Fold this sequence. Notes:
By secondary structure, this protein is mainly α. The chain has 6 helices and no strands. It has one domain. The chain has helices at residues 7-16, 33-37, 44-58, 64-71, 75-84, 94-105. The longest helix is centred in the middle third of the chain and has 15 residues, at 44-58. Mean pLDDT is 82; it is low at 1-5.
Amino acid sequence: MIAWEHRGLLDAALRRGYPRVLLIVALSVPDDLGAALHVPDERLALEIAFAAATRLYEQGRVSLAKAADLAGTERFAFASCLADLGIATATFDPADVETAGAAARSR
C-alpha cells in the first residue's frame, strides 16, 4: 500500500481536471485492488499514477516536474509528498558540495 497522506491533492486534481491533452493508457488490475490498497475505486487510478510517478522519479527516469504531471499534482506539492516518504528531491554533485563548503569557509 502506498502510504501517501496527502489525499487532498488527489481530490484537488480530480476537481480541477487536467489542463492538457493526455494520452489515455488502459491498465487491467484485479477487481479487488482498491480494497487491498484501502483506496476507494474512484481514486484507484490516481493512486496508481502517484505510485508510478514516485517510482519513475526514484529511478531517475523522469524529472520532478514530469513526475508531478503524471501524479496529477503541482510540482512543489509532489516534492513535499516525496519528502514525507523519505525520497530526496534534490541531488548534488559531491564536487559542487565541496566548492560551496570552501566558499562558505572563506567568508
